[in-house]
Automatic annotation (TrEMBL):
<protein>
    <recommendedName>
        <fullName>Protein kinase domain-containing protein</fullName>
    </recommendedName>
</protein>
<feature type="transmembrane region" description="Helical">
    <location>
        <begin position="506"/>
        <end position="530"/>
    </location>
</feature>
<dbReference type="InterPro" id="IPR032675">
    <property type="entry name" value="LRR_dom_sf"/>
</dbReference>
<keyword id="KW-0433">Leucine-rich repeat</keyword>
<keyword id="KW-0723">Serine/threonine-protein kinase</keyword>
<dbReference type="InterPro" id="IPR017441">
    <property type="entry name" value="Protein_kinase_ATP_BS"/>
</dbReference>
<keyword id="KW-0418">Kinase</keyword>
<dbReference type="GO" id="GO:0016020">
    <property type="term" value="C:membrane"/>
</dbReference>
<dbReference type="Pfam" id="PF00069">
    <property type="entry name" value="Pkinase"/>
</dbReference>
<dbReference type="Pfam" id="PF13855">
    <property type="entry name" value="LRR_8"/>
</dbReference>
<keyword id="KW-0067">ATP-binding</keyword>
<keyword id="KW-0677">Repeat</keyword>
<dbReference type="Pfam" id="PF12819">
    <property type="entry name" value="Malectin_like"/>
</dbReference>
<keyword id="KW-0547">Nucleotide-binding</keyword>
<feature type="domain" description="Protein kinase">
    <location>
        <begin position="566"/>
        <end position="834"/>
    </location>
</feature>
<keyword id="KW-1133">Transmembrane helix</keyword>
<dbReference type="InterPro" id="IPR008271">
    <property type="entry name" value="Ser/Thr_kinase_AS"/>
</dbReference>
Length: 866
């Protein structure tokens, strides 16, 4: 049965692959598809394979339309919106030198609940493509299409905020078109209309159209009363380079009055515009021997081409350019004198020309700067789209040469000073040949000063001050016309003695060297002391590594575990990794987590947790009494915390009391202290990775302790690290970490922010409609804290402290990790909140809690080992 199912599944997979192959050169992005939904998936009507846009953009949030009376298909029900940053861009792969149809679709559907029609700009690379203005349109949806030949293999599509409203996008569809089709003398084609002539037809797309163009039927009222429809049941040959669908070609319109011309009024694209037409003809009537059909095409009376004689059941495409002066623009098909039949038309495409005059930044410079960005793990929201142009969106820290729009801008200056850079100086810097200024000062860069800097011809200024560079200055950098600043690098050798080839004259103005030997010596002494300290710390760590195997005193046998739990009598919890029992060791109560299976995953997590907990001690981290590791039996023995977890105390489940605001603030503070200790207090620093209300336990005095370190990881201090698998709990996972796989302590800050939001609002973290952060986001503007606060608090809180806590939670859940505070800032802010709440309580005549809070503040101001 399972085998059969497997076969069936692989068959389905094969079918999908075959169908997806038919869509070669297609990119179909369902923007804002939630992470828990399948991607790619097949859209049921068109059979197009849609993919989540997640990996094509790194900003924005997911939304979903609230109303769908018009029945938009699945890809258009979700959307991505961009509350942060001015310009947000998709980066897509295309084929250079080939015409692509690019369609951007927008369905507003009151996704934000504000019912305010948005207005924003759409850019193609550095150039304005269109302004999306729902107010002017008066519709619920719109789309923009261009036929465009990219000048490089990558394509940036950007949404730009131009006013108060938030840009969004529902879908992006890109199709590589046939060779040599839709070629313009200059510029790209912006679609005005693409229609065919069937009174009763409906819109036609893929798979009937192999390029997924959308053909709109001139049906109902849009089929003029001056026209008569003709159709055929026979097959029409549609093979030319445009390949319009056969279903389009089997219908045509002719003038009802046989002597009148067929008149089509063009949609306006503004007067004086250049129009491109692609008219498709096929003779679909059975002609008598005496009959001929021949006609001219004219635009506002000016004949556009030679007379046309449609071929029997075979396509003829006429393409032509014309300009319309004045307001009206009328296309006419007029029969010639020798024609016995009136003209006919099967399908018509109309475009205006749109020019993209601004050249993109040099491809190699773009590749180099992206490489540098990736190496240093920079994630700046403004670093999207073209780095240099348009000028108003120039990436922060860059400057470029761009005087002439038709010439690709080049990067001339790179300033990453004070950006928390670690590691060595990026080799990709040498791929910016026109760089004149380089400022990497005030970071934590290590390693040597690379020689290539001396070989970059344009480079005139380098500031490497205040880093941790070592070695000596390469010969190549000691040249006239190059200003090199290297002060504040204690390990960098500046004296002549350590240069490989001694130099007679120092040509480089090395600013620091003048700062005299005294400073160098002082720094050296500090360094030696520091190194010694570090060596002891390393010794300590290696001892720690031994503990898992050796620390016998904490290790229990399985029979001891059986005894301490009285043969697993009392279950107090059930987690993903196993059951939790209550027991006693030497008269004190303990909680024992029995790991259900010895899968590698289970063992790894077990070992990680034991290693961590035997090593770290903090009053706000749950402590490990011991462990059992005997054959298949793995158990963790913790101190017993009788008051359950924070989640229960918010929901009231498990017979737990709802905790009041001051206890919530104190719990938040204590949790923050535990987290801060993990982030900065222990060596190596750790990220918890699974901060959530269910993992915050409360002891008999309601003191909070963070638990469950099974997926915690050490990380390289400020440096973020990449892990192959993203772990954590849905709803609490940092979206940036989720996207980039880069883990740093700010991911915990995000999860912590979600916990705070839960404590403030008591809303589910994820509901059908919202993430709690989004819900708060929509409520924030209303200036009424009572709408946001947990109703179970019955208004019993200081609103000032509530606001501060809320603002803190919002900043912790910022989508951009760089904007989130670090835990010590969180702690300071929480103390202020508690002070506000305390003063309210004492003003109210000093309730019981006030004393409690004051005590807690005193005893836990500094994270401290127990
Ligand atoms: C837009 O949607 C609303 C309901 O969401 C509907 O009442 C209205 O008719 C729609 N407008 C158009 C132009 O379809
Ligand atoms: C399009 O042209 C390229 C070369 O210019 C060629 O390799 C490719 O096969 C052509 N594709 C089609 C569909 O004709
Ligand atoms: C359709 O037209 C093409 C080009 O004119 C021709 O090569 C092909 O044989 C035709 N196909 C049929 C079925 O007539
Ligand atoms: C059709 O166009 C040709 C030239 O292309 C012209 O000689 C002829 O007069 C035109 N006929 C009509 C009816 O406009
Ligand atoms: C077609 O006929 C009209 C009048 O019937 C005449 O004015 C015109 O010159 C003719 N054109 C040609 C190309 O014969
Ligand atoms: C950037 O370069 C331009 C010349 O391309 C110059 O006018 C401008 O002052 C420079 N800006 C900065 C901040 O250096
Ligand atoms: C680099 O930027 C910092 C501010 O971020 C500024 O103080 C410094 O002067 C800049 N360096 C150069 C070389 O312009
Ligand atoms: C070089 O960088 C250091 C540290 O950021 C700064 O103090 C100094 O002013 C910079 N020097 C110049 C000339 O920009
Ligand atoms: C360098 O890193 C240390 C700790 O890793 C940190 O204390 C210091 O502030 C960092 N320096 C800079 C300039 O970022
Ligand atoms: C410079 O520091 C790196 C580590 O950051 C080390 O590998 C290298 O050996 C050091 N070089 C010198 C010359 O001390
Ligand atoms: C994804 O999550 C949302 C919210 O939790 C839920 O409503 C939806 O059913 C989930 N979808 C799938 C396919 O699991």
């Amino acid at each position: 049965m399972t085998k059969f199912l497997g076969l069936l599944l692989s068959l389905i997979a094969i079918i999908h692959i075959i169908q997806a192959q038919g869509q070669q050169g297609f990119t179909s992005l369902d923007c804002g598809l939630p992470a828990n939904e399948t991607s790619p998936y097949e859209e049921s009507y068109t059979k197009l394979m849609f993919t989540s846009d997640e990996t094509f953009i790194r900003s924005g949030r997911n939304g979903r339309i609230r109303e769908n009376p018009e029945g938009f298909a699945k890809p258009y029900e979700t959307l991505r919106y961009f509350p942060d940053g001015i310009r947000n861009c998709y980066g897509l792969k295309v084929e250079k030198g080939r015409t692509h149809m690019i369609v951007a679709r927008f369905v507003y559907g009151n996704y934000d609940g504000f019912d305010v029609k948005p207005k924003f700009d759409l850019y193609l690379g550095p150039n304005l493509w269109a302004t999306i203005d729902f107010q002017r349109l008066g519709t619920n949806s719109t789309n923009e299409e261009i036929l465009h030949m990219p000048t490089s293999d990558s394509l940036q599509i950007c949404l730009v905020k131009t006013g108060e409203t938030t840009p969004f996008i529902s879908a992006l569809e890109i199709r590589a078109l046939g060779n040599d089709s839709y070629i313009t003398k200059s510029g790209s084609l912006m679609r005005l209309s693409r229609s065919y002539f069937s009174k009763s037809g409906s819109n036609i797309r893929y798979m009937k159209d192999i390029y997924d163009r959308e053909w709109v039927a001139h049906n109902g009222a849009s089929f003029q009363k001056e026209w008569t429809q003709i159709s055929t049941a026979l097959d029409v040959n549609n093979s030319n380079k445009y390949v319009p669908p056969k279903d389009v070609l089997i219908h045509a319109a002719t003038p009802t009055d046989a002597n009148a011309p067929l008149t089509i009024e063009l949609p306006s694209g503004g007067s004086g515009e250049e129009y491109y037409f692609y008219a498709h003809f096929a003779e679909i009537q059975d002609l008598q021997a005496k009959d001929t059909r021949e006609f001219n095409i004219s635009l506002n009376g000016e004949v556009l081409s030679d007379p046309i004689i449609p071929k029997k059941l075979d396509i003829t495409t006429v393409s032509s350019v014309g300009t319309c002066q004045g307001m009206e623009c009328i296309l006419q098909l007029t029969r010639t004198n020798r024609s016995t039949l009136s003209p006919l038309i099967n399908a018509l495409e109309i475009f205006t020309v749109i020019r993209f005059p601004q050249s993109e930044t040099d491809e190699n410079d773009v590749a180099a700067i992206k490489n540098i960005e990736a190496k240093y793990g920079l994630s700046r929201i403004a670093w999207q789209g073209d780095p240099c142009v348009p000028r108003q969106f120039l990436w922060g820290g860059l400057n470029c040469s761009n005087t002439d729009m038709s010439i690709s801008p080049r990067i001339t200056s790179l300033n990453l000073s004070s950006s928390g850079l670690t590691g060595n100086i990026a080799a990709a810097v040498q791929n910016l040949p026109q760089l004149e200024k380089l400022d990497l000062s005030n970071n934590n860069l290590t390693g040597g000063v690379p020689e290539f800097l001396g070989n970059m011809k344009s480079l005139m200024f380098i500031n490497l001050s205040r880093n941790n560079l070592n070695g000596s200055i390469p010969q190549a950098l000691q040249k006239q016309g190059l200003e090199l600043l290297v002060d504040g690098n204690p390990m960098l050798c500046l004296s002549n003695a350590c240069r490989k080839r001694p130099k007679k004259k120092v040509l480089v103005p090395i600013v620091a060297s003048i700062a005299s030997a005294a400073v160098v010596i002082a720094v050296l002494v500090i360094f030696l002391v520091w190194r010694k300290k570090k060596a002891t710390a390393v010794g300590g760590t290696s001892m720690v590594n031994d503990t898992f195997a050796n620390k016998k005193s904490r290790r229990f046998t399985y029979s001891e575990v059986v005894k301490m739990t009285n043969n697993f009598q009392r279950v107090i919890g059930k987690g993903g990794s196993g059951m939790v029992y209550q027991g006693t060791v030497n008269g004190s109560e303990v909680a024992i987590k029995l790991l259900s299976q010895t899968s590698t995953q289970g063992y790894e997590q077990f070992k990680a947790e034991v290693d961590l907990l035997l090593r770290v001690h903090h009053t706000n981290l749950v402590s490990l009494v011991g462990y059992c590791y005997e054959g298949d039996h793995l158990a963790l023995i913790y101190e017993f915390l009788p008051n359950g977890d924070l989640k229960q105390h918010l929901s009231g489940k498990g017979g737990r009391s709802i905790i009041n605001w001051s206890v919530r603030l104190r719990t938040a503070l204590e949790t923050a202290l535990g987290l801060e200790y993990l982030h900065v207090g222990c060596t190596p620093p750790m990220v918890h990775r699974d901060v959530k209300t269910a993992n915050i336990l409360l002891d008999e005095n309601f003191k909070a302790k963070l638990a469950d370190f099974g997926i915690s990881r050490s990380f390289g201090g400020r440096e973020s690290q990449e892990f192959t698998e993203v772990a954590g709990t849905h709803g609490y996972i940092d979206p940036e970490y989720y996207r980039t796989n880069r883990l740093a302590e700010k991911s915990d800050v995000y999860s912590y922010g979600v916990v705070l939001l839960e404590m403030i609002t008591n809303k589910p973290v994820i509901s059908e409609e919202y993430h709690v952060a989004e819900w708060v986001g929509t409520k924030l503007n209303q200036c009424d804290i009572t709408e946001i606060m947990d109703p179970k608090l019955c208004g019993d809180y200081d609103s000032n402290s509530a606001w501060r806590a809320l603002e803190l939670a919002v900043s912790c859940t910022d989508t951009s990790s760089s904007k989130r505070p670090i835990m010590s800032q969180v702690i300071n802010e929480l103390k202020e909140c508690i002070a506000c709440e305390n003063s309210r309580i004492s003003n109210n005549g000093g309730l019981l809690e006030s004393q409690e809070i004051n005590i807690s503040l005193d005893s836990t101001v500094v994270p401290r080992a127990r």
